[in-house]
Amino acid sequence: MSAQPQSRQGTRESPAWSGAEAGSPTALGTAALIPVAGAPVTSPAGYQAHGATSAGRYRSPGRAFHGNWLRLVSLIAFIGLWQLLSSTGVLPPSKLVSPATIARTAYNLVVTSSPTYGTLQGSLLISAERWAIGLSLGVAIAVLLAVVTGLSRIAEATLDPIVQALRSIPLLGVLPLFIVWFGIGELPKDLIVLLGALFPMYVNTFAGIRGVDPKLRELGQVLGLSRRELVTRIVLPGALPMAFSGLRLSVVSSLLALVVGEQINANAGLGFMITTAQQFLENNIIMVCLIVYAILGLLADAAVRVLERKALAWRHEFVQ
Amino acid sequence: MAPRIRAVTPGDESASFDGAPGGQAAASVRGLTRRFGGRVVLDTLDLDIGRGEFVAMIGRSGSGKSTLLRALAGLDRDVTGSLEVPGTVAVAFQEPRLVPWQRVLANVALGLRVPEPGRAAADALDEVGLTERATAWPLTLSGGEAQRASLARALVRSPSLLLLDEPFSALDALTRISMHRLVLTLWERHRPAVLLVTHDVDEALALADRVLVLRDGRIAHSSTISVPRPRDRDHPSLTALRLRLLTELGVPAEATA
Predict the structure, then answer these.
(1) What is the CATH number of the domain that holds A210?
(2) Model confidence, pTM
């Protein structure tokens, strides 16, 4: 065995050793000084196979399937029970109207324009517009702010305390002030939605930017990335998962701001319908509006999740 | 106190070196010192790495191996002494450090300044046998695949000095053996100078032209290995050197019997 490498010596083209003893191929520097004498060779540390690490906790697809059915059945059963309690008079309509009444009310509000309320879709459109304006502007401003403060310590020291101070003011508490400042038009409503969207988005995006693995920043340095490349290829994509968490929170908190904001001094929209219905004790209409708000929230959350799946494909393909 | 000197950038080919062009070193370190607080991690260390030379550096944890490598990579600006690396430096880290949101090919091409970065990256992936994973997301790669991608990303830059920071230590034994072969093949083809930092004496013996033992922030031992590759693990010279190195590392033969 031990003679083998030496016999190879002749056939093999000797590489250009830059070591000192290139002239004597079998010499081994200082090693020759050491007695060999059959000493045991230590097994090098770290030569263990890692194959045994088990991660196997797979949920069977069959069970997930049944779970989804159960969820649906449970929901239908809940609505059925509610209807039953209403039909038998256990739940008085003055407190809680039946699902059937809610459906009928919704249908009537869609097909006929009432002189008091207008149509449901008309109100929905107005509310959705307020939400879209407020949410998109709020998110855009939050991202801009977070990028600036996230990338620059000076900007952080300058702007972050202001944002944090404003964030500590209860959002819905400033509504009366907004009405004093901006009247009862669309502006104060858009603004309150904007602020509702701004803070969660800002906080999460900022944390995402600062949380990017410093080892990846170091890698960028080793690869000679320019500052611009570092930001666009490493830092911002790395902040995206947190930014999406922020977006989902912003959707929820801006919807809350919308619901409250448009119930005060409104003359159109879902909030206006609710406050008017409250005066006439028409809680069936209030219920319809609440359900529409809920559907709006669910749709928006689903849209964000679809967007997230696309943007963070690198993560989802891994997680399955 | 010696002045702080950064790694010389690729443009500075004129960086002063005495002697003939053939004798120009891939890296030249003089009196390199690094302190963390009061602790001296590198203590006036001198090191030359010849062009195309494969150097392995072993040492116990905390001996300063990684600190030296980071200094050579230009990642540590708080070293004192002189440090000259006249050429491109590439690093393969212990964790492959692939950017998770860039596909494998884009990872290899990241920051690459050549006319056709995509093509060069594809060729590099081909060299490490990873062509079919070019469009995969890094998180879906196995440990060995990820390290091969990391190697491709380092080599595609045609470095004159390739720094390997324990790149095989997290791999299983079989994958590690095939990675050793791959590294040798790539090194023989491209001939960068290599500084391999490792805990593994056998790895150093299998791969390197010269093995250094780092202890207390200085090079405590240096051996040249001229056994041709591929090397038989049981070659008497290697067996002798293994014992010597283990002794240098504080694990003498008696203790392991």
Answers:
(1) 1.10.3720.10
(2) 0.77
